[in-house]
Structures
1.
Amino acid sequence: MIPQLVWITDATGFHTYFNQRWIDFTGYTLADSVGPEMWNNLLHPDDRARANKVWGHSLATGADYEIEYRFRAADGSYRWFLGQARPWRNAAGVLTTWFGTCTDIHDQKIAAEQLKEREAEFTTLADNVAQLSWMARPDGNIYWYNKGWYDYTGTTLAEMTGWGWDKVHHPDYIDSVVTFVRNAWAAGKPWELTFPLRGHDGEYRWFLTRAVPVHDEQDQLVRWLGTNTDVTEMRRLQDQLQSSYADLEAKVVFRNLELEHQVQALQKQVAAK
């Protein structure tokens, strides 16, 4: 009645027993199941060589057996199982029997593979966006950066974990940035700030940093998602525009003064006549 497929072999690996659940799942009778070759026939072709290697090692050494593989069901479909076995020795210490089980882990395996696929997709997306990206815990300790961050800063995760990011900040701005960020973490609301970050070449570029809080179903803050967008060229253009505007404004002022002087001169000429 236990949920696993149960089997027993002798010391050589020859199967001598299977429980009813094995028969129900595989569709094999006891007569069909007993013997050395049946096992391979039920294993997925891609898992046979690996399974034989692991099982052969256990038979040769007496080490506990554990492996994940796919078994064919009676309907021809395959499901993932966790195969485990332990040896039994007699009073003289001689290995005489193996007791094994196959536990159905198909649903967990598929879920894990789907999660792994989503993580790979996320990593691909995060590593190919234009921004430097990062994630932090609720208290603001950063635990993940995308590839763009490492490419730009030339740092490692070990250097940047937690508050390590202050190492790449400009010394003229770091105090104000830290003060602002600490208050922002505590407030738990979206925030943004612009400051310079040092690249791997030692040069500083300006970045617009934005962070948004992520909440769970109970509205508890679970992490922060942040991006750093390079705005250096934009700031240069703004500075150029501001400079041009200031020059234009100065020219207008000087021109107005010049016109005012000309008007005053004309007024004096008219008064003299």
Note: The radius of gyration is 36 Å.
2.
Amino acid sequence: MTLDLEAVAKRLEPRFGKAAHRWVGTLTRRLDELVARWELDLGEPVKSGNSSVVFRCRHPRGEAVLKLSPDSYAVREEVDMLRQFAPSGRVPAVLAAEKGAVLLESIHPGTLVEKMPRPPSPQEYAAFLNDLHGAGDPAAAPRRLEDWIDVLFNSATRRGADLAGSKRLRDDLFAAPTATVLLHGDLHLGNVLAGGVKGLVAIDPMACAGDPCFDAVDYVLEGLDRAEMLRRRDELAAAAGIDVARLDAWCRVTAPIGATYVSNPGHSAELAAFGRGEY
């Protein structure tokens, strides 16, 4: 196993500042401790974001994924929420955990849904959502959907999104009574894996308590044109048994946020138009 510690520190620095370098200085020793304690055969690092380091490995129970982060609170939250969702069968099993580190079941084939040549059907995705939302206690959520939306709005505003219409729709949605479930909260299709016999599997929850329609939004908005987005909206709502009008409103709340992220100019323009209510 090879690990470029300097590259790891540079990758984590935007999130953790100079503390990233101090943490990386302890990483080799920490890995040695975990390998011994959890009886791991450590493999190569896996590409990850700016908050953690991830390795493939083998465990006595089979292939696994080891994740470590300077943010021990975030790791603890992830572990707690994965255990909440575990009865659904739609998240990786937590094999072991301690401060700042978690060992997860490896998902096979593990293809990101956003990379699949053919996306899951609305019926497949509805079954996935209903399984997720049927597990877990919304009272255990570390945040409410209202709070998470504020975080997303603040980030999108810094990127230049026009959210005036989104905020009005958000207020209308929160004013109307609806079911409350434990939401994944960050269910873009880069956080959904093809799990073979397990079906679709969710990773990296940003769990919150709120309207079940919210977790359906990204599947709809990742359709590349308006016809596909509207088809996904209608078929997913029907298959999942959710209110299509609420799903549509949540899509319009979040479409301007998505428009600031996607790299495809045509898709970005369609999202912005969806958010403006042009179709």
Note: The mean pLDDT is 95.
3.
Amino acid sequence: MLRIADILALPGLHELRLRAGAAGLDHVVRWPYVAENEGIADWVMGGELVFVTGINHPRQEANLLQLVREAHQQRVAGMVILTGEEFIRAIPVAVVAEAERLSLPLLEQPYQLKMVVVTQAIGTALVQAQMLGRSRQHVLEQLLEGGYQSLEVLLQRARSLALPLAVPRQLALFRLAGGEQLFTDDAPLQAESRLQGYRQQLHDEIEQVVAGLGDALALICQGEHWIALLPAADAQQGRHNRQRMQALLVRANTRLAPLRLFLGLSATGHLPQHYAAGLGEARQALVVAQSFPERLGLSCFGELGVLELLSAVRDRQLLDRFVAAVLGALIHDDGRHSPVLMPTLEAWLQCNGNLALAAQRLQVHRNTLGYRLQRIETLTGRSLGDHHHRLDLTVALMIWRLSAYQPAPA
């Protein structure tokens, strides 16, 4: 990947000056774009380095401020303003201040530095970065899959590609869910365009957050999933990663509706020979993140407890039989009527048997809750006052939740 900081260091581009937005020097550049219209919001998708010349459209302070704000809103990588005697004489102070406030890298390019020189240098660097990125991704994918004959040979290749694999890692597995809803709401072409736009924005945001953690490795994109390898030598770094990832999920899910982003985190301290195992941990955590709403879309492998055992059971028939024996009557009854018994049992267990709290959570009268609990005991043949029976019900509920996100093998 090519960052703003890399562009400033390219041979022949020393006349480019960073005027504002140093906090965004790690922004990844996808391609250069020359702004020809009054605004850019309808013409960019995120990740562009936008060039503003003033040649085909007058650029007064108000318009430049508009462009900076639109660039920030559309998540472009940065903006370059060409200055000289003929068109834009100088970048207004207010524009520099606004770019700094928004952490948008703002570069100044004198007109005597020819555009063809700049775009050729950036284009060449982008091609080289893409080739290097593909090679690095291939190495990482082999490590994640465990599909290699010699670890030593693969690590030698990683060193030649300058991959920082000596850093212990925590694996993060993201999943963007709900894309099918877009195709229910919109025409196919419009829905596909929206979905690809969401994916690109999300990819860029995840990439920026991961880069901010240091020792960044490229994201691995696999359909609706992204794999990130976060630096994490110990539990303290793991907690820091969790906080940053939780904040990322909150920001992303605020604007993604009806789509939803989920995340599973592995344990910390994984070295390259353990990446495949770490990815397995992240997968288990992701299933739990999707299955239990109270986890707010994020789960860590180290927090799974008994769920680690349940999600690792490969005999689905064994799990299905247990759920059917314990909860089958409730599931059947909810299927015939409005589903109330399973949500009631789950709320009562989550509230540790506190009737008042459970009734409040369900927004029902306490007497209604009492009647439902009696019916649950009758249908299951289990007493809610017996701790062995409560354990059966709790575990069966966990399996029932997990089963929705673990399809049976073909």
Note: DSSP finds 15 helices and twelve strands in the chain.
4.
Amino acid sequence: MSRPVIGITPYLEPVDRDVWRAQLSVTLPATYAEKVIEAGGIPLVVPPLPDADEEWAARVLGRVDGLILSGGADVEAARYGAQPHPAAQEARPDRDVSELLLAQVGRELDVPTLGICRGMQVMAVAAGGTLNQHLPDDVGHERHSPSPGEWSSHRVLVGQGTPLAALLGAEVTCPTYHHQGVASCPGYDVVARAEDGVVEAIHDPSARWRLGVQWHPEQGDDLRLFEALVAACS
């Protein structure tokens, strides 16, 4: 059986490299690619396109077997009809337009998809959903992202009888780093929550395999989500 090709959306950020400073770069933490390789897939980075349209998204998705929408900066609030919160990060319009199109067209084409952190939020917004822009305002603590630049972890409670429970069991402890979350996600089932009620996973019951998680599985040792994605693409 040939190894499926998994497209991964990267970050677009200024990077310091040797003598070069703040060079705008297409970049991705290596752990994303490593997990896809370990799970039996072939990672392929899909850079954002400023003038992306549905034809671009369809052509990209026609050349991969599956898709990972990666983490990163906040989705711009205007994309879901809101004013930005004071704690919101600077928008990445190239990423927003490209990834929202990949999420929308990927859903129409039934491309197996895993959304991670921002990626899950992109899936929700592409479906017409909304986000909680600053979780500490809603849950009263900062345990989802307590220290800048440092991973935290917490328990995630998985809904009984859900496809995610069949894959991961009733409870997992997950690497986490986010200050926003999904408030609504039309067409998706919420299949896991943190103990404080924050949405931690969404699932499309009409899709072959389409799942978003709020945590960062690429930062842990558990390959099951990546293995399930690769299996769905094979």
Note: The chain has one domain: 5-233.
